[in-house]
Amino acid sequence: MSAVAAKPQAGGAMNPTAMAVGVVLLIIILGVCWFVSPNLGLMALIGIIIGGVLIGFGTHFVPVGGAPAAMGQAPGIATGVAMLAAGAGLAGLFGGAWAAEQGMVVAVVTGGIGGGLMMAITCLMVNFVYVFGMGIPAASGKVLHDPITGDSQAEYKSQGTEGHGLPFVCFVGGVIGGILGGAGGTLIYLELLSLYEASFPTMMNATLAQITPVAVSVAGMFAVALFLVNAVLTAYNITGTIEGPHDPKFKRWPRAIVASAVASALCGFVAILIVAM
Amino acid sequence: MSVKVEVIEGGVPHNKIMIAGLVSTLVCIYLTYLNAFTNTEVFSFFGGLAVVSALIWGSHTIKVLCSYGIGTGVPSAGMIAFGSGVIAMLLATKFGMLAPIVALVLAAVIGFILGYVSNNILNMKIPAMVQALTEMAVVGALTVMGFAALITGGFTFTGLTTSATSIMGMPSYGNSFLGGGLIAVAFLLGAIAIQHPFNACLGPGWKQDRMLMLTAECGFLSMIVAAVMSFALISAESAIISLIIALIGWFYTYAQYFVLSKRDAAAWLDSKPIPDTEGH
Questions:
Q1: Which of B174, B175, B107 is nearest to B143 (CA)?
Q2: Of B84, B121, B161, the CB nearest to A229
Q3: What are phi and psi of A85, to 5 degrees?
Q4: Which of A14, A19, A55, A232 is the mutation pick for testing B, counting most B CBs within 10 A?
Q5: Are A245 and A63 contacting, i.e. CB atoms less than 8 angstroms apart?
Q6: Contact A206/B84, CB-based, under 8 Å?
Q7: pLDDT the model gives residue B85
Q8: Count of pairs with CB atoms under 8 A, one residue in A, one in B
Q9: B105, burial (CB in 10 Å: exposed 0-12, middle 13-18, buried 19+)
Q10: Inter-chain CB proximity B176 and A274 less than 8 Å
């Protein structure tokens, strides 16, 4: 098959067999993890899966415009999903990591706020550049009225484009996506950090204080890696661009939930094996 | 003026590049094990050469995958390659001398499952997807392992977490590849080097040899940075050897890339202004 013939990619259709295989795979990985490390490891793995699913679901909210947005021909932020999700998620992850010592809830909320703040600033500045730099109004091409404000969109949309700029609903979607992504990334980091801090001292025969840099670094690296895997899988799900929660592509999220859960379970299990073996 | 095409469309087949890249990467990583036999660190530079050969293989894999127009941009492929690769690599380091082989197998398993997930669950339906994601996870794992060998002189978990220098008789963990967070730099050095060449060279004028030369250039450029970082963890002489090899490799590949770019640059035909046939 030539590259051109393969162009029409992922449609909105679900593949029930593959979804079932994914769920079975997820259960198998959970079972093996229960076998290898019944208490600490399984709890950590469940936390990692929840975090991964949050990242995968949250990425659907982010208005990703890609190259058409850079030319003002489609709404959204003018870059790819992986870059945006990594930016928001890592900002949240770093924010949450600072608060890691203050308990799970505070740290996860801090991570979410970090990610949301990052996306809010990004959306604001992107709109600033669109409106004052490129001289285009914000208008969505996918809906006639903004679902939140009810503002009419069609009059502001240029002919031959799919819309442009960042309408209010895209802005809100971006912030929600950032919050979910940042919280998910922080959750993964915290689960792995507590696991490593509990296991590394006996494994490496050293005190907790000595081992902390290694535990932080390894947990952080795994969190970043898991984040990128989940973000890219979601990017594959929405095939590039999405306007936000009002976009028809948003309805594809169940596929991404299964995919993120399987990928997070697999990668998280490998991360747990480091201390369980 | 005519453009001289030295390589036919498509160039060297992908399987050949894959096998050559895999074998040379594994051999180079294992050559750093000479450090343990001879009790020195001067063979660390082989880790950098492993990085370059793995990247050359990986960038061609990205070309195979992204020719299908996955719609998410080329950088995302580099990110998932290293995201899945570094996970396999970290676990594999616990297997001592077997680490590169374990990294290869483990990364292949992770990559295969991720490929299945994206091709079937996410319904991408791209023929090259499963194989490409499998290969890229392996490339990611071996590249980070090559960086680890270059920077620390070894690739075992103990070597990556424990510093050779000790503070008051206690081993120091903060001053190491993992404890010092050097792995994050290695991760992104590799992830950028693997995705940039195809991103920069894609298009109708794509030429295989030019893209692979750019990959080698990016690899050596990353190796320069990693060699500078290795001054912190291995002896100065060994780090200088790595740095000199990286600089020579970078100058050579950069010059070659420049030559290839000039070769492939769009020809400008001197067609003269519209001839003024009437009148004079």
A1: B107
A2: B84
A3: -65, -40
A4: A232
A5: no
A6: no
A7: 92
A8: 181
A9: middle
A10: no
Task: For A211, name the nearest residue in chain B, comparing CA atoms only.
Answer: B173
Q: CA-CA distance, B226 to B61, in Å (whole number)?
A: 24
From CA B25, how far away is CA B41, in angstroms rounded?
Answer: 19
* Non-local CB neighbours of A56 within 8 Å, separated by 6+ positions: A230, A233, A234, A237, A256, A257, A259, A260
Q: At what angle do helices A16-36 and B99-116 cross, to 10 degrees?
A: 140
Residue B183 C-alpha, separation from nearest chain A C-alpha, in angstroms: 8
Burial B35-46 (b: 16+ CB within 10 A, else e): beeeeebbbbbb
pLDDT averages per 10-residue partition of chain B, 280 residues? 39 90 93 84 90 93 82 83 91 89 94 91 84 94 93 83 64 78 90 90 83 94 93 88 94 93 74 65
In 3-state terms, what secondary structure has residue A265? helix
Give the CB-side neighbour count of residue B62, counting CA atoms within 13 A.
Answer: 35
Q: Is the pTM of this model over 0.95?
A: no
Per the listing, tokens 């932080």 go with: A216
User: ipTM of this model?
Assistant: 0.88
CB–CB of B84/B111 below 8 Å?
Answer: yes
Give the other-Cβ count within 10 Å of B271's Cβ. Answer: 6
Spatial separation of the C-alpha atoms in residues B46 and B94, rounded to whole Å = 21
Rounded Cα gap, residues B140 and A73, in angstroms = 35
Residue numbers of chain A with a pLDDT score lower than 50 = 1-10
Q: A47 and A187 in contact (C-beta within 8 Å)?
A: yes
- Report the share of chain A in percent with pLDDT over 90: 33
Residue B166, pLDDT score: 56
Cβ atoms of A144 and A154 within 8 Å: the answer is yes
Query: What is residue B272's three-state secondary structure?
Result: coil
A214–B91 C-beta distance less than 8 A:
no
Contacts of B168 (CB under 8 A, 6+ apart): none
Q: Which of residues 127-146 of B touch A (CB under 8 A)?
A: 127
Question: pLDDT value at position B133?
Answer: 92
CB B85 within 8 A of CB B139: yes
| Interface membership of B106 toward A (CB under 8 Å) | yes
Cβ neighbour number for residue B49 with a 10 Å cutoff:
25
Dihedrals φ, ψ of B150, to 5°?
A: -65, -40
